[in-house]
């Protein structure tokens, strides 16, 4: 079992709130993602069993939604918004800056397994661009100095 | 204190106005707490409605206010509620659409982060109006902090008896579930949202049947935007007549506009409908002019799915009708400003990449067409454009427009069509010279 | 054979104009269907007549006056006064555009694609497409890791290959799988233009209806590995036939190669009254047993202790002589016969005449299954199983009650029918069984009664109905005839609460049109007469058949035919009269049915048996006892397709031709007579049963018929008799016998068909063996946990009567102390665990370590 007891209990509780159990699939994926940091077939199976829905439907839903990585990532998943409002304020060069600072290319994970860098679609932070999301947290109105500080803090925390 | 976005708002102006209302308390860090909210009269309207008004009165009042949906399509809210079948034995559902994923749009977030109870109160009133006992808010999954804030507010509302069994002793039961999405713009489209809420892939459904007849779990369902439902609370507090003192005849009231891109002061601003777009961009209280005092090149007035306006078109009111008259749409009220250093092909590539990525994949024209368009536009942007590409783009756009299940297909092609129309030479230059007329390079500072 | 007397509410009609033609259709019809009905063709990809419209592919565009945009006709309802154009310029352009989008990423590999010649996309492109592709990029390609093939083919099921490059994402496979079949082994993953169809990750598409997915794929994305690359479709001939592996008789089409005597594949031949165009995998792949290398090729005769091949003449003469000898020495009462209810009408009637006229005995039966019962001509069960039933009536029923049946295994067609009714009409569906069954997934609610309490449950339902509506006629009379006679004790005994019984009774009382299906748990029960009596009472009390239909459904392809032709010792009086008239006489003796014949054999009072297409040694309960019984025979002649446990004991074994090798007629569970045409010539030296019987009769100098025509005319005359037995004129006694239970054997054993097999023959069909090759013990997750076993672990199952070993399959359906064992595998001898004397088959299980 990859999922722990708390996650399973939470999934079951959430699923039971809806008029139909199947509605619990997306909440369950979120719960699993928060515990594990990514999703995979084994997790879909466990979710299907936990909330008693067909396995294939869990897998279909999971692969449809792009928020959940399907492969392990570094401890911190950096997601830079590359959509239009952020791009107008330098999102592309923000990605380059991060690549340079972390010594990796977009899509890669640092050797110490601390950071994975990707870019994503609009995160609803358009008037505070450029921005990035690290795991579940938003970092907005970014500048070089801010980015430096954020990375430092995360490194220190790790 | 829970996290919230540092985005600029015009809360001060709103607080000083006796009309604007949505942003009145959004700079008050305590507003998320139920005590503060109640001290501002919060939940009083819900209590008044539930204990003194009939559901039909609420619908009538909202109809009279002329409120139109703030999610993008601008459909009259009261009229939509009226479509709920009166005699159906099935349960009815209300779903608040907080998927906010249209590029440029970041307004609903402010309400959820800073005034979540106002949304919940609006939802409760709407639920009562349509006879719903279980309502949902569908929040995009990336908004972890919003979900937390709304969840917390919800628990407080239950604890205080504003929700739950037999609310205020009225005999009316009302429950609410916070549902988080998984990263899919299409789930903002109401039928895709309903599928997603049911645990399916977020793929759009063909209409009819419309959600008001067969929505969530095949039961009558109303889907409304966060801002729409929050506004309902204010309309029911102060009345349709008051509401109509704002805005225009056909677009009454106020609305939040997210201003982003090349302006000096990006932010979320609540203004009356019909407010001047130019003023919103240039007035120091709002956008405060173009970044680096460069020349304006174009504006997307209503989020990434609306057609571009050129500088000569911005002297226009921000209301549904005026926007249509200049060939664009009010959409979600996301004003994205581009200055002269922006290559139009570069900008369109960003957009078409987005729509291709977000197409649900159900209907052929959108699924295949967006992919094809992206490949052609990428080739032009990277210097490999071929003669005839522009015409091909126009033709493909024409084959998608109006031919898809849901409006995402239209959304994907309308900005492209307008960009080709307004800046055709720039496209041509790109193809002929294999490079931009305007070398776009936006540095991150 | 419609049973419904209720009048349908008048359907509102609408009239619209399509291409200047006025068309009137019932309200609710789509524009597409209105057009198709009027003979106007509109292309479609994602639409399927038996699935909900999704409007995804967009090829079915039409222009509708007053609507600014093109509309998809498959999802647009026809309304009064609508003016539709299906061939205007704008429609043509729209269609072309969609084709261009679809072809953008569709490979141009038609020459090597197995769908070539029957591909919707190929045909449409030819008819409407552009001359040249404007898409000048690399096409999307899904590469299968580790497979160096240019076809990028992926095996996703025992018989299904997937080529995702060719897939046009109409989603019909995924939709039909979930919607029509209730199966969840194929899905659509990812999104947008990265979307792909595939099996559930790490799993196989192996559901009992999986072959349909290939059939409805409009392109060559899903192909059948049984058939592909063997032959091109334009080099084949087709023959209409029917599915003889189940009692509905789905309509099918065989494909054979022009110049070879070999069937290549089976597809459906849609008949909306029976099958809606869906066939089971058993129907689809079952034909392969015909070409099994194990087919009997020549007659065999026991010489010494060995069976050796002989010529037909010798075998036939020998049989005729031996039967005559036994008749002479011991009398015709000492000869009996069994014929399979999967044989055609000609064979069955020939058998009846052979036994009765040539030999002169009434010792004959077609009930080769489990636990036949003492025969009473007026028995309640005979009544229940002779009632008319119409499959299509399920569509419009508002209450569907399935009692004691796992439909997926017993009546898969009816299962799909109920699913369709749920998708389109929303009836209330109840599934009531003594253990959890897969088919309960279509039910609004599943009720589980305690093992062996069927009649108590039905009594409870009657009592609940009386409580709900005390005015029901004769309620008091009923109460005196049943025990227990109070609702609460009935509820307690059967384990379904009084509240639930009342809710069920209410729906039965209020239902406007009821379909009440009685399945194997009743039909094969030792106490089926008692249960049937309870059901007769229920019908008398609430009047189910006055508002619908109720029947114990026939189980085999020609069970009803056999019943109607009088293949039991004491047939319906009308049938007996007809036969007497035709033959100028009828044996006087009473005759023994299957069970009776076996007892007589054991006592040494029945010395010869003629068996056609049946294998009682492997299928009948009490394996050891039955085998012993057969050993006592002086003379046994068996005709079959294969060597079986029963042929192994025979003095003469005759090779039987299969249903594909001659034209035959079969009567399905509705009483519908259907024909299976001859697809190929009989293989080897096999012959149809009627021909074999004719030969033996001729050798005995008592010819059966003067001509095929005479045979046919006799059959017509007999079939013209009604065999529907009237409901009893009063309430019947229902006193439930006590349930014997030994604590040493705490687990209930269920024996039946694996969803991919039928009886003892399908293990010879290569494809079906790929789905399931061996017996298994399916047990509930609770039992798996208790015995610490997982899939594949061996367990020993033991009853009072025998024991065997099989690998475990942990069930997704079963709950509690119940295990299932398929009866389809000869080496496993499932029938050694069960006894004719028991009502419930109790067993214990042990893990086999090591
Ligand atoms: C592709 C697409 C995305 C949409 N996204 C959103 C969204 O994020 N939030 C929203 O409120 N409405 C969104 N909508 C509009 C909804 O479909 C729906 O019209 C709206 O939620 C109705 O609410 P309203 O009447 O209050 O505007 C979207 C529509 C489309 C076609
Ligand atoms: S338009 Fe795009 S997003 Fe909408 S249904 Fe069609 S494929 Fe899905
Ligand atoms: S057949 Fe109508 S949209 Fe596919």
Tell me about this structure.
- The complex is a heterotrimer of chains A (158), B (445) and C (850).
- Chain A is α+β, with helices and mostly antiparallel strands and 158 residues long.
- Chain A folds into two domains: 5-64, Arc Repressor Mutant, subunit A, CATH 1.10.10; 76-157, Glutaredoxin, CATH 3.40.30.
- Chain A has helices at 5-17, 25-36, 41-51, 55-64, 84-88, 91-102, 144-157, and strands at residues 76-81, 115-120, 132-134, 137-139.
- Chain A has a four-stranded mixed sheet with strand order 2-1-3-4, covered by helices on one side.
- Chain B is of the alpha/beta class and 445 residues long.
- Chain B has three domains: 31-245, NADH-ubiquinone oxidoreductase 51kDa subunit (Rossmann fold, 3-Layer(aba) Sandwich), CATH 3.40.50; 248-339, Ubiquitin-like (UB roll) (Roll); 344-433, de novo design (two linked rop proteins) (Up-down Bundle), CATH 1.20.1440.
- Helix content of chain B is 41%, strand content 12%.
- Chain B has 18 helices and ten strands.
- In chain B, a hairpin with a 5-residue loop joins strand 5 and strand 6.
- The mean pLDDT of chain B is 96.
- Chain C has five domains: 18-102, Ubiquitin-like (UB roll); 133-291, Alpha-Beta Plaits, CATH 3.30.70.20; 332-369 and 558-719, Rossmann fold; 395-552, Dimethylsulfoxide Reductase, domain 2 (3-Layer(aba) Sandwich); 747-847, Barwin-like endoglucanases, CATH 2.40.40.20.
- In chain C, strands 15-14-25-24-23-16-17 form a seven-stranded mixed sheet, covered by helices on one side.
- In chain C, helix 12 packs across helix 15 (498-510).
- The radius of gyration of chain C is 29 Å and the shape is globular.
- At the A-B interface, helix 2, helix 4, helix 5 and helix 6 of A face strand 3, strand 5, strand 10 and helix 14 of B.
- FE2/S2 (inorganic) cluster is lined by residues 44-47, 55-60, 72, 74 of chain C.
């Amino acid at each position: 079992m990859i999922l722990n007891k708390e996650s399973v209990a939470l999934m079951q509780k959430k699923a039971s709130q809806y008029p139909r159990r199947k509605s619990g699939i997306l909440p369950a994926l979120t719960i699993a993602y928060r515990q594990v940091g990514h999703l995979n077939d084994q997790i879909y199976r466990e979710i299907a069993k936990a909330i008693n829905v067909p396995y294939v439907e869990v897998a279909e839903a999971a692969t449809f939604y792009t928020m959940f990585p399907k492969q392990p990532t570094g401890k911190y998943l950096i997601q830079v918004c590359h959509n239009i409002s952020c791009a107008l304020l330098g999102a592309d060069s923000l990605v380059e800056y991060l690549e340079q600072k972390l010594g990796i290319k977009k899509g890669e994970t640092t050797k110490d397994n601390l950071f994975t860098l990707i870019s994503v679609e609009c995160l609803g932070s358009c008037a505070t661009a450029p921005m990035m999301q690290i795991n579940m947290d938003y970092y907005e109105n970014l500048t070089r100095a801010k980015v430096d500080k954020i990375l430092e803090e995360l490194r220190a925390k790790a | 204190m829970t996290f919230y976005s540092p985005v600029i708002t015009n809360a001060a102006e709103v607080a000083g106005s006796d009309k604007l209302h949505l942003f009145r308390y959004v700079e008050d860090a305590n507003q998320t707490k139920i005590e503060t909210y109640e001290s501002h009269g919060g939940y009083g309207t819900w209590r008044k409605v539930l204990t003194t008004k009939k559901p039909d009165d609420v619908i009538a009042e909202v109809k009279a206010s002329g409120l139109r949906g703030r999610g993008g399509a601008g459909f009259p809210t009261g009229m939509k509620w009226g479509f709920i079948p009166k005699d159906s034995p099935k349960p009815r559902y209300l779903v608040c659409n907080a998927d906010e994923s249209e590029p440029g749009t970041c307004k609903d977030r402010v309400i959820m982060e800073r005034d979540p109870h106002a949304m919940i109160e609006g939802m409760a009133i709407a639920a009562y109006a349509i006879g719903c006992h279980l309502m949902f808010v569908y929040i995009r999954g990336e908004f972890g902090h919003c979900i937390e804030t709304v969840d917390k507010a919800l628990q407080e509302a239950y604890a205080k008896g504003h929700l739950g069994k037999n609310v205020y002793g009225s005999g009316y039961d009302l429950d609410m579930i916070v549902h988080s999405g998984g990263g899919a713009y299409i789930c903002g489209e109401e039928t895709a949202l309903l599928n997603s809420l049911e645990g399916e892939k977020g793929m759009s459904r063909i209409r009819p049947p419309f959600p008001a007849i067969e929505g969530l779990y095949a039961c009558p369902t109303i889907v409304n935007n966060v801002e729409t439902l929050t506004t309902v609370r204010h309309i029911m507090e102060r009345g349709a007549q008051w509401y109509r003192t704002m805005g225009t005849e056909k677009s009454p009231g106020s609305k939040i506009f997210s201003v982003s891109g090349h302006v000096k002061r990006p932010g979320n601003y609540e203004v009356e409908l019909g407010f001047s777009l130019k003023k919103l961009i240039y007035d120091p209280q709002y956008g405060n002019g173009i970044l680096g005092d460069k020349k304006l090149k174009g504006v997307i007035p209503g989020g990434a799915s609306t057609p571009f306006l050129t500088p000569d078109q911005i002297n226009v009111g921000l209301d549904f009708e005026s926007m249509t008259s200049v060939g664009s749409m009010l959409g979600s009220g996301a004003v994205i400003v581009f200055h002269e250093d922006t290559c139009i092909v570069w900008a369109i590539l960003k957009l078409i990449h987005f729509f291709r990525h977000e197409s649900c994949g159900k209907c052929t024209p959108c699924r295949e067409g967006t992919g094809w368009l992206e490949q052609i536009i990428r080739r032009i942007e990277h210097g490999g454009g071929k003669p005839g590409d522009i015409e091909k783009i126009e033709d493909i756009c024409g084959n998608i427009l109006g031919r898809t299940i849901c409006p995402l297909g239209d959304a994907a092609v309308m900005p492209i069509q307008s960009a080709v129309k307004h800046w055709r030479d720039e496209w041509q230059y790109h193809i002929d010279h294999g490079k931009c007329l305007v070398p776009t390079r936006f540095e991150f500072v | 054979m419609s049973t419904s007397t209720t009048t349908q509410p008048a359907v509102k009609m609408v009239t619209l104009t399509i291409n200047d033609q006025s068309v009137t259709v019932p309200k609710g019809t789509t524009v597409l269907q209105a057009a198709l009905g009027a003979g106007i063709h509109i292309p479609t990809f994602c639409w399927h007549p038996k699935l909900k419209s999704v409007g995804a592919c967009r090829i079915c565009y039409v222009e509708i006056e007053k609507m600014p945009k093109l509309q998809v006709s498959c999802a647009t309802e026809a309304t009064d006064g609508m003016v539709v154009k299906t061939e205007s310029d704008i429609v043509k352009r729209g269609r072309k555009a969609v084709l261009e989008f679809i072809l953008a990423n569709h490979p141009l590999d038609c020459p090597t694609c197995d769908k070539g010649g029957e591909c919707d996309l190929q045909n449409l492109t030819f008819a409407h497409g552009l001359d040249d592709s404007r898409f000048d990029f690399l096409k999307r390609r899904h590469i299968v890791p580790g497979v160096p093939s240019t076809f990028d083919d992926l095996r996703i099921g025992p018989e299904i290959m997937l080529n995702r490059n060719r897939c046009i994402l109409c989603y019909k496979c995924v939709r039909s799988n979930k919607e029509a079949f209730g199966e969840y082994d194929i899905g659509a993953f990812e999104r947008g233009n990265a979307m792909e169809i595939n099996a559930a990750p790490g799993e196989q598409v192996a559901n009992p209806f999986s072959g349909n997915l290939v059939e409805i794929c409009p392109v060559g994305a899903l192909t059948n590995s049984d058939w592909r690359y063997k032959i091109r479709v334009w080099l084949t001939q087709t023959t209409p036939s029917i599915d003889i592996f189940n009692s509905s008789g789905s309509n099918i089409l065989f494909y054979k190669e022009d110049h070879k005597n070999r069937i290549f594949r089976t597809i459906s031949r849609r008949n909306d009254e029976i099958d809606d165009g869906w066939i089971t995998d058993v129907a689809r792949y079952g034909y392969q047993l015909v070409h099994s290398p194990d087919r009997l090729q020549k007659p065999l005769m026991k010489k010494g202790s060995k069976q050796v091949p002989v010529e037909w003449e010798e075998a036939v003469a020998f049989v005729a002589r031996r039967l005559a000898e036994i008749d002479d020495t011991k009398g015709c009462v000492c000869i009996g016969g069994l014929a399979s209810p999967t044989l055609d009408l000609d064979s069955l009637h020939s058998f009846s005449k052979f036994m009765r006229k040539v030999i002169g005995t009434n010792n004959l039966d077609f009930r080769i299954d489990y636990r036949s019962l003492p025969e009473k001509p007026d028995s309640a069960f005979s009544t229940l199983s002779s009632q008319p039933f119409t499959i299509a009536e399920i569509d419009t029923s508002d209450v569907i009650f399935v009692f004691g049946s796992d439909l997926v295994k017993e009546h898969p067609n009816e299962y799909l029918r109920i699913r369709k009714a749920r998708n389109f009409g929303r009836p209330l569906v109840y599934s009531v069984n003594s253990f959890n069954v897969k088919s309960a997934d279509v039910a609004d609610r599943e009720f589980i009664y305690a093992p062996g309490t069927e009649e108590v449950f039905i009594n409870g339902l009657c009592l609940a109905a009386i409580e709900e509506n005390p005015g029901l006629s004769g309620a008091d009379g009923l109460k005196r005839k049943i025990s227990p006679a109070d609702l609460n004790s009935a509820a307690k005994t059967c384990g379904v609460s009084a509240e639930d019984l009342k809710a069920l009774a209410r729906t039965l009382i209020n239902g406007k049109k009821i379909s009440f299906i009685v399945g194997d748990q009743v039909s094969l029960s030792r106490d089926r007469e008692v249960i049937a009596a309870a059901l007769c009472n229920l019908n008398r009390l609430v009047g189910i058949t006055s508002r619908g239909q109720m029947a114990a459904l026939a189980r085999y392809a020609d069970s009803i035919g056999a019943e109607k032709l009088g293949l039991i010792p004491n047939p319906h009086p009308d049938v007996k009269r007809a036969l007497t008239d035709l033959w100028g006489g009828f044996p006087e003796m009473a005759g023994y049915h299957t069970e009776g014949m076996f007892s007589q054999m054991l006592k040494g009072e029945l010395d010869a048996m003629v068996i056609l297409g049946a294998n009682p040694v492997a299928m009948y309960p009490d394996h050891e006892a039955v085998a012993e019984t057969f050993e006592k025979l002086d003379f046994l002649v068996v005709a079959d397709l294969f060597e079986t446990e029963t042929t192994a004991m025979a003095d003469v074994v005759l090779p039987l031709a299969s249903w594909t090798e001659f034209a035959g007629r079969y009567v399905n569970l509705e009483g519908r007579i259907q024909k299976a045409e001859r697809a190929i010539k009989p293989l080897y030296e096999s012959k149809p049963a009627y021909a074999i019987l004719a030969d033996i009769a001729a050798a005995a100098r008592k010819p059966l018929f003067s001509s095929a025509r005479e045979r046919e005319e006799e059959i017509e005359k007999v079939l013209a008799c009604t065999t529907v037995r009237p409901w009893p004129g009063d309430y019947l006694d229902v006193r439930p016998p006590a349930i014997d239970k030994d604590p040493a054997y705490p687990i209930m054993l269920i024996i039946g068909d694996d969803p991919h097999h039928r009886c003892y023959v399908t293990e010879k069909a290569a494809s079906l063996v790929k789905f399931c090759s061996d017996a298994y013990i399916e047990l509930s997750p609770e039992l798996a946990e208790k015995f610490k076993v997982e899939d594949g672990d061996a367990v020993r199952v033991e009853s009072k009567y025998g024991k065997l070993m099989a690998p475990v399959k942990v069930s997704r359906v079963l709950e509690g102390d119940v295990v299932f064992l398929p009866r389809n595998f000869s080496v496993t001898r499932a029938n050694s665990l069960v006894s004719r004397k028991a009502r419930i088959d109790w067993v214990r299980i042990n893990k086999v370590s090591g």
